Amino acid sequence: MGIVVQKYGGSSVADAVGIKRVAQRIVNTKKQGHDVVVVVSAMGDTTDELIDLANEVTPLPPARELDMLLTAGERISMAVLAMAIQTLGYEARSFTGSQAGVITDAEHGKAKIIDVRPGRILGAVADGAIAIVAGFQGVSQTTKDITTLGRGGSDTTAVALAVALEADVCEIYSDVDGIFTADPRIEPRARKIPRISYEETLEMAAQGAKILHLRCVEYARRYDMPIHVRSSFSEREGTWVVKDPQAGVAQESLMESAIITGVAHDRSQAKITVVGVPDKVGEAAAIFRAIADAQINIDMIVQNVSAAATGLTDISFTLPRGEGQMAMAALAKLQSTVGYERLGYDDSVGKVSVVGAGMSTSPGISARFFESLSEAGVNIEMISTSEIRVSVVVSETQVEAAVNAAHAAFELGTDEVEAVVYGGTGR
Amino acid sequence: MGIVVQKYGGSSVADAVGIKRVAQRIVNTKKQGHDVVVVVSAMGDTTDELIDLANEVTPLPPARELDMLLTAGERISMAVLAMAIQTLGYEARSFTGSQAGVITDAEHGKAKIIDVRPGRILGAVADGAIAIVAGFQGVSQTTKDITTLGRGGSDTTAVALAVALEADVCEIYSDVDGIFTADPRIEPRARKIPRISYEETLEMAAQGAKILHLRCVEYARRYDMPIHVRSSFSEREGTWVVKDPQAGVAQESLMESAIITGVAHDRSQAKITVVGVPDKVGEAAAIFRAIADAQINIDMIVQNVSAAATGLTDISFTLPRGEGQMAMAALAKLQSTVGYERLGYDDSVGKVSVVGAGMSTSPGISARFFESLSEAGVNIEMISTSEIRVSVVVSETQVEAAVNAAHAAFELGTDEVEAVVYGGTGR
Predict the structure, then answer these.
(1) Does B57 sit within 8 Å of A20, measured CB to CB?
(2) Is B340 annotated as a binding residue?
(3) What is the three-class DSSP state of B145?
(4) Are the beta carbons of B412 and B263 closer than 8 angstroms?
């Protein structure tokens, strides 16, 4: 059998009890005949505690030193995990990102992996040992300084290592059983999705489902590395993220396969409306150049048809709430040049999306989605679509009703409540 | 001006307040025109907390992984210290032992430094930056694994770096003002020693004075690197440990210079007596071979003259209390072959030593020492001497009286109480 890469998040190794449980799981996989390479995050709240410590001496920690500091977190968890495995009678060796050959650029805090040279990991595996690798970290090719990969870094480390090691699968463990058709906390009939494509997973993640980080899924898609998302608290099969979810699935199941894979929602956004923009060439460009120059990522954009009588139009867009005030300040500076009437800001909005690869060949998805919202009394404020997704912005108070309505309309539900917890994947 | 190496122990960087205070001291040294390279220990109790964490998963942590775990401690303190310095407007870069070029053998937990290749440190210094180096750690030349240097490791890192960088001085900071003529906690008239030789410092340390670790002083002596022992809590001059303490000191001061430099004491030992050993060739050898095979370090040994009538003798020796039961077990196995009568064990003993380089040319030191103890009513159980030291073992309850008596007999005291605290130097 080949190599299995397993990634355990901070919630799985939050304390000594968790570490021992994870050690036992790793040993069980080894006993089944696999070579095992493990990527581990920092224990529980360690990263936040280290950031707090840094903030005790400076409000703006220098990036190189913050990376040096934060990488202490995985160093602790990986060493203790290796100890716990050895206590079970199996050899284990821990490796920092640098020792594992995770080579990055020099962008501290958000470094990108540019190469993986897993010579020492392969050496450990050849010796029959279980290799434990620190997630989230690497070493800069140019400066030789320690770097961190930023959010989702440990998942990305795991997939990148799996690719470099030509592993059979990259297993991503957290405290949830897999990817669900909707957040079970607001949709009790949510069902675990057994298999899902990279593209659908990307859309679900981008639309607010806290399952896998975009970077890691993009990396897996580029190299066609299967990801198995599962819980470290149960032995159940989780969700397989693969290139072709229907490959190998029996034909009768295919017939029944859903057009929509899941419903995602996102409560982290705000909506800005620029009211009364003169409808002439270059005005919209000026607005979005100002936003881009302020390093703000915007999501959905809607421009109304201009009223012929006034020659004025409204432009609305959504963006992360945390960047709302910065964007408003950038736009305020434009009023004299662009000549808009006023700005509107609304942070009590939510986004609800239906995602499914079958959508592109099934007409009427948008209609069915909008009808279900209408029947549930949900008012649609904005709409955007992609090849495999339809998203709407609604009032934050109507997010739950919208998720429930869409989930029912596309018959995603089950009678059995499978999961109670639906959490983040850590970093 | 040249390079100054400064080493700060865990008590100096116990929290954010301490780190900021140390950062200010470092910047002050830089402002005086020195290039500064700093070696730092883990914050406060970090090392003990990490050991506790390891013990939560295994009673006997594997050495390689324990080193990986413990080195997280300095990683945290050095990164936060570098941040604090940068907040003061000076560039600072932290380096792990490996990055600083501290090359060791592969003996995890007690690695020896075999080379220092400080290329990156010199690069940082050439850029005008303050280099912050993790103490206590290195990287194995053969396995490329992370190692720790064991007790006194940070002091040794500092001296080794100072030698490799050809620094002007290695400053060792702790929470005491320097090396004292006796422990001020039991001898209120104790006086700070301004200058002391490597040899005297070694004897003081070996005899229980918790000032500098033997390894670091031995390293400094081998390469003639001056050590300045001082407090991070005051600006006072501390104690200079040098090759020739009287060099450059005015002749009239020399005339008055004390024959005895200080009084050390040690409450960490136990005494074992093997009673009724047949006085023939090879019996003592058999006893000490058994002790050595059990990896126990013994200190003083006394063998009584055998009583002619019985042909039996008693052999007593001292050893660290923690190893007492192991030694007793090793000796118990010998009873049938060596044929001794019985074993005695006493862990309520203490050792008091007078140390001074002037001793070798001043007769009568032992007599004056023993007379002072006699006048104080202190009973001497064992005696051992070196070229520059006389040590006695006494009852633990009489240690304080013995220190006071010796301190007064050799006129080491001052009327002024200089220090209240007299602590360890951390690791």
Answers:
(1) yes
(2) no
(3) coil
(4) yes
Query: How many Å apart are CA A311 and CA B263, to the nearest integer?
Result: 96
Q: Are A230 and A172 in contact (CB under 8 A)?
A: yes
**Two tokens, residue A51:** 């950031």
CA distances from A401 to A367, A385, A416, B320 (A): 17, 20, 20, 72
Q: How close B284 gets to chain A, by Cα (Å)?
A: 41
Backbone angles phi, psi at A86, to 5 degrees: -65, -35
Q: Which residues of A touch B75 (CB under 8 A)?
A: 68-69, 71-72, 75
* A20–B80 C-beta distance less than 8 A: no
Q: Are B65 and A87 within 8 A, CB to CB? A: no
| Mean pLDDT, range B54-70, rounded to an integer | 96
DSSP states of B388-427 as a string?
TEEEEEEEGGGHHHHHHHHHHHTT---SS---S-------
DSSP-assigned beta bridge partners for residue B390: B354, B385
Q: Which of B57, B87, B92 sits opposite A83 (nearest CB)?
A: B57
Return the residue in A60, A68, A108 with the most chain B beta carbons within 10 A, the one to mutate for interface testing: A68
Confirm if B103 and B138 have CB atoms less than 8 A apart: yes
B79·A66 Cβ contact <8 A: yes
Helix crossing, A324-332 with A283-293: angle to 10°? 130
Residues of chain A with pLDDT under 70: 248-258, 305-308, 414-427
**B9 labeled part of a ligand binding site:** yes
Answer yes or no: is pLDDT of B424 > 60. Answer: no
Cβ contact B43:B13 at 8 Å: yes
What are the residues facing B146 on neighbouring strands? Answer: B139
For position A251, what pLDDT does the model report?
56
Instruction: Compute CA distances B242 → A43, B167, B197, B202, B227, whole Å.
Output: 46, 14, 5, 12, 7
DSSP codes, A64-115: HHHHHHHHHHHHHHHHHHHHHHHHTT--EEEE-TTTTTEEE-S-TTS--EEE
Q: Is A411 annotated as a binding residue?
A: no
Q: What is the pTM of this model?
A: 0.83
- The DSSP secondary-structure symbol of B353 reads E
pLDDT digits (tens, 9 = 90+) for A330-349: 999 988 888 899 999 999 99
Gap between the Cα atoms of A270 and A345, Å rounded: 7
Between CA A389 and CA A28 the distance in angstroms is 39
- Cα–Cα distance measured from residue B156 to residue B218, given in angstroms and rounded to the nearest whole number: 9
Q: Kindly determine whether residue A71 and residue B66, on different chains, have CB atoms separated by under 8 Å.
A: no
Catalogue all structural domains in chain A, each as residue range(s) with its CATH number. 3-254 (3.40.1160.10), 259-411 (3.30.2130.10)
CA atoms within 13 A on the CB side of A339: 7
User: Nearest-CA residue of chain A relative to B49?
Assistant: A76
Closest by CA to B330, choosing from B368, B291, B364, is B291
**Best residue in A83, A127, A140, A145 to probe B by mutation, most B CBs within 10 Å?**
A83
Structure tokens at A4: 């299995």
> Going by C-beta distance under 8 Å and a sequence separation of 6 or more, which residues neighbour residue B424?
B174, B210
pLDDT digits (tens, 9 = 90+) for B151-173: 789 999 999 999 999 999 999 99
How far away is chain B from the Cα of A15, in angstroms, using its nearest Cα? 9
Report the distance separating Cα B99 and Cα A71, nearest Å.
15
| Dihedral class, residue B311 (left if φ above 0, else alpha if ψ from -120 to 50, else beta) | left
A117 annotated as a binding-site residue: no
The answer to whether A30 is a known ligand-binding residue is no
- A110 CB-contact burial (10 Å; exposed 0-12 / middle 13-18 / buried 19+): middle
B93/A57 Cβ within 8 A = no
Instruction: Confirm if A85 and A30 have CB atoms less than 8 A apart.
Output: no
Cβ-contact A376, A247 below 8 angstroms: no
Q: Is A123 on the interface with B (CB under 8 A)?
A: no
